[in-house]
Input
Amino acid sequence: MDGTMDGLLWLPVVALALAAPLMYPRWTLRRALARPLPPAAAAILQRNIPVYASMGPALQQQLQRLVKQFLHQKKFVGCEGLEVDDEMRYTIAGQACLLLLNRPSKVYRALHTILVYPSAFLVPRQQMDAGGVVTAHKQTLLGESWDDGRVVLSWADVKRGYRDWTDGHNVVLHEFAHQLDSESGSTNGAPYLGSQDSYRSWSAVLSRDFDTLRYDAYYGRQDSVLDHYGATSPAEFFAVATETFFEKPWQMADRHAALYEEFMKYYRVDPRAWLPQPQQPAGPESLQPEPVAAPAGAARRSYAIASW
Ligand SMILES: [Zn+2]
Output
């Protein structure tokens, strides 16, 4: 056998060696997706995602598949001695994947790690005043989203989020909305929308409602169903409006019809189908209870203000 033949014989081996790193993740994912969700996990989704029961079997199956992919690809890390258990994993993955239903997107492409603290956590911050003097302080956070692929959550606040699914506050939906936002290349309140027309109408509607919310927040008015925290920046507006869309869909559709329409186009679900219409008429008194006071100094991650 000459040298050329020897080389040809090695070709399949070399090709396999080159392809293996690409094929192996797909193969392990297919295996993970083929395994049925354990009954205990389905029970967690049922228990800790209050809208799960009314989503219908097709969406439930879709959510289960997304959860399996999420848990296969992402790593959970417990912080401050917290041991992350299945209750935490399935609850967080289930809520995060609600934002992905009916959409062909990948499962949080850039995200690799979810860090879970037992409760609100302190992070060091630096602030520069007008004179250029930098001071260090610590900030208490309930959740944080980084565009380098990390989400940080307080488990106590995750629980608070699902125990009342109609108050418009949900730290998991909030932080994972930031993740979707950052997939477009910059975290500025506009996730990837596809067509130019979609961006145009998104920009027109969200800019207008953002300005109104800023006005309301500035004058302390409670005219909006959206939390004033959304007035901080366009990125926070998108995250807060996402919480409202899933938890107060009837009120949002009533008070912010165009915004609700934009969110239905983006999220491709109508959460009104999952929650009963509130009994009270949609008057300002019934819709805007006094905001729940956040713990002193509490805040979520805010991004640099950008415009749509
Ligand atoms: Zn935020």
